Each structure stands twice: as C-alpha cells, then as structure tokens.
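Pilot study result, target chain (491 residues):
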Amino acid sequence: MTVYLVGAGPGDPELMTKRSLDLIASADVIIHDRLIPDGALSGARGDAELVFVGKQGGGEQIPQSEIDQLLVRHGQSAETVVRLKGGDPFVFGRGGEEAEVLAGAGIAFEVVPGVTAGIAAPAYAGIPVTHRDSASSVAFLTGHEDPTKPESALDWEALAAFPGTLCVYMGVRQLEGITQRLIEGGRPSDQPAALIQRGTWPGQRTLVGTLGTIHSLAVAERFGAPAIALFGPVAALRERIAWLESRPLYGVSVAVTRARAQAGKLGGRLRALGATVIEAPVIRTEQIPGPAPDLERYDLVVLSSPNGVAGLFARLSAEGRDARAFANTKVGVVGGITEQALAHQGIRADYVPRRWAGEELATLLVDVPLERVLVAGAKHGRETVTDALRARGVEVDVLALYETVVEPLDSERLAAVNAADYVTFASASSARNLAAAGFEGVGPRLVSIGPATSEVVRELGWDVASEATEQHDLDGLIAALLDDVKRPRQS
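Predicted structure:
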C-alpha cells in the first residue's frame, strides 16, 4: 500500500508527466485538488474512487486536517492512492506537510514532482525566470502565508535587495501590499513587472508594467487568482520573445465532440496550435462481443475505422490469434487514421483511398477480382462499400464490431460549447448527438471532417462554415479550421 503525492503540473494537460498519468491509470483512490488540468482524470479506472478536496479562495474550504485524515484512512486500506495536486506538491502545495502526516502514520509514500507554475506560467508568457544578461538567480515566495503565524516569515528588505527575479505565488490579492513593501525596501519602482493569470490554462492573460504600476493595472484589467506575479528585468523580455500569442489558433476556442477516448489526440493538436479546447464528447463507442471471424474465407477484409481495428483484434486476441490471421487475405481501409491503427497491429493495408470516404474505396476496388468480402466496423454504419460490392455480385458479409452510443453532456459543458468560437465534427453521429443534447447550431462556426458528416450537419438545419477537402481525417479537419480562421469576415 502506497500513497503517491503527485504533481499534475500548472494546467496545460500536455505538461503532465508520464509518471503522473501512469499512476492515475492504476490508482484505486484519487484525492484531487481543484486546479488540476482539464481531463487529468480521464485516464482513471472506471472503478477508481475519486475524492474532490479542492479549495477555492474566498469560498468554502476543506480543512487540511480533514484531507490528512482522508490520506491516512485510504492509505491504510487501498493498494494505490494518488494525492493529485496542481503544480508541484513540494512547491507551496502543502505536500511536505502531508508527507509528514503519512510518515507519522507509518504509511509508505512516494513523491512525484510536477512542473511548477512559477516556471511554467512565465515561460508561456515569454518570460524566462533567469537570463544570462538579466538575472542569474530566482526566488520563489508565497503571497499567502499561514494566517496563524504571529508575523511574516518573509524578510521584505532582503527580498527587495535580492539581485534576481522574484516570483510570487498566490499574491494577486495581496499585490498592493507586496509591491509597496518591495519599493519601501529599496527595489526600484520602475523595475519591470508582470502578472500572469491562469498560466498555461485556456484563456491565459499576461499584464506587463512596473513594480510601481502593476497593481493599478491589475485592478483596471480585473486580474484575479490564480496568478503568478513576477518582478525583475526579465519581465521586459516578453516584448521580444512572447511565443504563445503567435500561434495560429491563439485566442480561438474550439469544441471537440469526438468520443472521450479519441478526443485527446485532436485536442492536443489544437492546443499545440494555441487553441482553447473544450472537450465535449457526445459519443462513446462500445465493443460488441462475439467470436473472431475466419479471415481465410475472404478475398478482402474492409475496416472502416480505428475502432473497428481495435474490435477485430480484441476478438482475435481473445481466441489466442494475432496478425497472422490476415496471412491469406487483402485488407482495405477507409482513411489514414484506420491505416495507422492497422499498421500498429503489424498489418499494412493493401487498399487506402486518398480521401477518407467509402465512395473512393469502392472506386479503388472496381477492377479488383473479388468473390467474398468481409466489411467490419460499426453497427448501423454507412453501407457505401457494401452496396457497391453487392451491386457487382460480390458476396459480402457485414460484421458489427462496435456501436456508437450517446454520451450525456451536462448543462455546464453544453453552455461552453454554445459559447465556443468553433465546433468540430469528426462524424455524423457526433453532430446528431450534440443536437440531442440541446445544441442549436447558433453562434459557433461549424467545421466538418467530410461530405458525409456535412450532409448530416445540414440536415439538422445548421450551416457548415468549413469542410475538409483534400483529406477526410484529422489533418483535413484541422486544415479546414485553420482556413476558416484565416478567412476574412464581412463586417
């Protein structure tokens, strides 16, 4: 039995460590804070117990003593307990105190560091906390000390004289007093200063001023927590090396409606382009149990999606079989993503349409001599290839490997989708299910992965702002989104 004190990083899910993700996936119990990355718990086991102990400044608080009791109780009964904290557990995260409690109770524990906000937030704002010419040292301090202390443990005169960067956590509410103390201690009032709100999170904001002006600027711009305050010459470097704002989708919010298991890949690519991603999975795939087919009976096996590949290999594996089952048959796929999923299993597809469409695969197969074909994929999937082959007199067996079911969307997530700049649809079912969830198609611009999906979007009474043309896959979907972002708007 072990309790893991795990840092989840500053907010961007791409900054979570592999170790943290592995532990989340294996944990029996996860005791987590409020400020953890969006989707951080998506990899948790379905039977894992999730315990929220978040604290909201100025709002209802869960006493640290209760959190300590939870750690001890679960640490004594569960095999693997993850205490998931924003940032790094040992940097103003009370991880040291929790480690002492666990040690005192004789409970085994490990510490898994995370990327801390004091480094990550300035970096995302284009501000290095150290620089060969500007700052050879950096000091991290908290602007929110234990209120029960008789006096501050911070030596403000020494900090004012510190010859490097000062990085203040949780100091936005005390910003006026902090800046006054530093100026009174001798730190120049015209020294560059910066305030980074929601560092690495969607909607990150950065404010640059001086030690003497940053508080009044923060009040005027309504900057609030969570925020990192930074004082030192390095703050002036933002003007030259800010990089976040230069990404093509910076400031653009995009809702991703793919199934939860697949949403991460598209979301990650959009975040890398600067987008604020709203994960709103409205579909979920469920494998349909059954025996593995005898592939040797077929001249060709057609797979229409990565889920179909996964479902087929799951059935083969359950019977002790593997890629060798394909030894005497050809394989056709619909789309590059399906081709990649098949290649991951050690099989190279023989027929791959350039565009992600069943119609094009059917065209590719026109001159291929075929007697018997297996089409394996979704229950109630499109029958384009099946119909085309049967029209030629080919015997076609259809195997449903999985089905797509509705994933409920809560009102808060639906409101976020309605407020987004864009909504992406990678399948017709995601459009239908979003409509069933209450989305009216008004406000956000809609981007479709291809003609079949666009047809359904229009049947729902919505307009398609942009559609993938050259490739009907994630590359094409992202290209269509970028094209629409660049397109001039009529005023």
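One observation from the pilot: Residues 31 and 83 are 5 Å apart (CA to CA). A full batch analysis is planned for the follow-on phase.
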